[in-house]
Design goal:
heterodimer; A: MetI-like fold; B: alpha/beta; Rossmann fold; 13 strands; globular
């Protein structure tokens, strides 16, 4: 297992290197100039100074080597072109945590409620409860999260005064954004859990368990649950990366100072250092979450655990 | 004096509601199993063998499969069909166990072998985990799995097909049930492994004195382990008798055809192997008369319109065939059909 993690980390580093390189050259090759708008009014000389400060007067390959050297030795993503004096690291440190707080709560709700509802739905297949759950799932998947957000704000916050419409800082500010985040995810986990549970119920070993004299509760607990969670584990990886990313739309609707808004703005501002910095941040999270998923897989499914330890 | 009937099935009918209509999978069969006896049920795919077995275990899918109202499955004097689900759970694995056709999919892939064997001991005998584990070890040794102590902690994917079927047998026999139902236990295995598994089942049966219902379409297996044989066709029993009676004096043309289709050692390579032409009737609208009539080389007019009455050839040997009616024309029938018939069927 230890060897496996080392190996996966090594592959992860290679993946990161490729992502950083590709992002750097794509951004460098993109049309438009990040500081053109900022320096338009300045005299020629001043423009030169600012360009050389960001290294924009040097050839691309030299800039790339400098960036990589800086990144590897100090872990610095570089100073933002738009927010003078603020590095991409500062932005991530200050804002990612806010997105993550909401994201982690929402994700835990999604997984636990989703697995529960999916299981209930599958065990009552084609009965009343199953039909209700399935209709709700389809609705929740089809309707975009910002529509839910608006509905929640109108009814829960404005009409019933149960929670603040927006804002940040207190515990009650979590209620609406977490709910808006969670709904779609709950629906998709429910959907996946339902279909994976149904396929496990159809397996021969469930018949063996029945033939052994297991009662329904025991069959669900001992034979169905673990096997039907295997496909769910795959979905959790990308979701973990997603919780730090936040959502541009929801964060702006609820005025949450999260990371989502920065990413979108960085792209429209052509803020090179921010784009690359945030991309690297997401890439690291993604690679890490995939390793976490592989470890989780091993915990849930002994076939994978033992195959890994034998390698 | 014959041993006590441990399972007695009377007029069992099972039908399935499908989109195209009601499929009558088992159409009124009577059969019984005596204590310590191996009863083989043979017949081709779809004749109702497995459905009969699952009906005994009450493991048929509930809304789709319907068991007839006047059907009766008596186990040790009690009608299993009147049991509630939780009463039935106390019978399964404790009094009647079942092993299935495909050992590759019949074990839980995420549960240790030892736990899977111990489970029924924990459920039925209220054993502690430790007691159950040590008995699971004993069971693994009983089914002749080497390195049993280490194997106990392994998962099914670390076992071969034959080894998994041994584990299935260990699970089934853990609580020392009175009846074991083996549903084609060797069909999914290699020929050499088949022999080992059948020998194991036979050995354990003699050691533990269980009654076994063996479902198979392998007549070689039947000849080597069974005491009595029931031949099923299209949801009906067509012939029933001791192994010797069925193999040496088959009376029903279907049994005769089944036996004829076994290749013999002295068959030369120029000869074509015998195969029975046609397919069984579909069971949504089963034929009025004998279901085998359309494929029967000795078929008569009456066979197609009226279901044959039971013919008792000996105390243990019965069949359903019009050929043994006093008015039937018996010229040209195989010699086995006629042996002993004149004296017994009058």
């Amino acid at each position: 297992m230890f060897k496996f993690i080392i190996r996966r980390t090594f592959y992860g580093l290679i993946t990161l290197f490729l992502i950083i390189t590709a992002t750097f050259f794509i951004i460098a090759g993109a049309p438009g100039d990040p500081i053109a708008a900022k320096v338009e009014q300045m005299p020629e000389k001043a423009q030169q100074v600012i360009r050389s400060k960001y290294g924009l007067d040097k050839p691309v390959v030299e800039r790339y080597l400098m960036y990589m050297k800086n990144l590897v030795t100090t872990g610095d993503f570089g100073e933002s072109i738009i927010y003078t004096g603020k590095s991409a690291n500062d932005v991530i440190r200050d804002n990612a945590l806010i997105s993550a707080k909401i994201g982690i709560i929402a994700l835990s709700l999604q997984i636990s409620i989703g697995i529960g509802l999916g299981l209930v739905s599958a065990l009552n297949r084609e009965k009343f409860g199953d039909h209700i759950i399935r209709v709700c799932v389809v609705l929740a998947i089809c309707v975009p999260s910002f529509v839910f957000a608006a509905l929640l704000q109108y009814f829960i916050a404005f009409r019933w005064r149960l929670a603040p419409v927006s804002g940040w800082g207190e515990l009650r500010h979590y209620i609406l954004p977490v709910a808006a985040y969670a709904i779609g995810g709950i629906a998709s986990y429910t959907k996946y859990m339902r279909s994976s549970t149904l396929s496990v119920i159809g397996e021969d070993f469930i018949l063996t368990a029945q033939a052994k004299g297991c009662k329904k509760r025991r069959i669900v607990r001992k034979h169905i649950l673990r096997n039907s969670m295997i496909p769910i584990v795959t979905m959790i990886g990308p979701a973990i990366a997603g919780i730090f990313a936040g959502s541009f739309i929801l964060e702006s609707m609820f005025s949450i100072p999260g990371l989502g808004a920065y990413y979108v703005k960085a792209v429209s501002d052509k803020d090179h250092t921010m784009i690359i910095g945030l991309t690297i941040f997401y890439a690291i999270l993604y690679v890490l979450s995939l390793i976490v998923v592989d470890i989780l897989y091993g915990i849930v499914d002994p076939r994978i655990r033992i195959a890994k330890s034998e390698q | 004096m014959s041993a006590q009937r441990i399972i007695d099935i009377k007029n069992l009918t099972v039908s399935f509601n499908t989109y195209t209509g009601t499929l009558q999978a088992v159409r009124g069969i009577d059969l019984h199993l005596k204590q310590g006896e191996v009863l083989a049920i043979v017949g081709e795919s779809g004749c109702g063998k497995t459905v009969t077995a699952k009906a005994v275990m009450r493991l048929l899918p509930t809304p789709q499969a319907v068991i007839g109202n006047d059907s009766e499955i008596t186990f040790a004097g009690k009608n299993l069909l009147s049991f509630t689900e939780s009463e039935m759970a106390k019978i399964r694995g404790k009094e009647i166990s079942m092993i299935f056709q495909d050992p590759m999919t019949s074990l839980n892939p995420t549960m240790k072998i030892g736990e899977q064997i111990a489970e029924s001991l924990i459920i039925h005998q209220n054993q502690s985990r430790q007691q159950a584990n040590s008995q699971a070890l004993a069971m693994l040794e009983l089914v002749k799995i080497p390195n049993a102590r280490r194997r106990l902690k392994q998962y099914p994917f670390e076992f071969s097909g034959g080894m998994r079927q041994r584990v299935m047998i260990a699970i089934a026999l853990a609580c020392n049930p009175k009846v074991l139902i083996a549903d084609e236990p060797t069909t999914a295995l290699d020929v050499t492994i088949q022999v080992q598994i059948m020998n194991l089942i036979k050995d354990l049966q003699q050691k533990l004195n269980q009654g076994i219902i063996l479902i198979t379409h392998d007549l070689g297996v039947v000849a080597s382990v069974a005491d009595r044989v029931v031949v099923m066709y299209a949801g009906k029993i067509v012939e029933e008798g001791t192994v010797d009676e069925i193999f040496y004096q088959p009376k029903h043309p279907y049994t005769f055809a089944l036996l004829k289709s076994i290749p013999k050692l002295n068959t030369n390579n120029q000869e074509k192997l015998y195969s029975l032409a046609g397919t069984p009737p579909e069971l949504i609208n089963p034929p009025l008369g004998c279901p085998f009539a359309a494929r029967c080389e000795f078929g008569m007019k009456v066979c197609r319109v009226k279901y044959p009455v039971i013919v008792n050839f000996t105390d243990s040997h019965q069949g359903y065939c019009w050929l043994y009616h006093e008015k039937a024309d018996r010229t040209g029938l195989p010699v086995q059909f006629l042996q002993g018939v004149e004296s017994s069927a009058q």
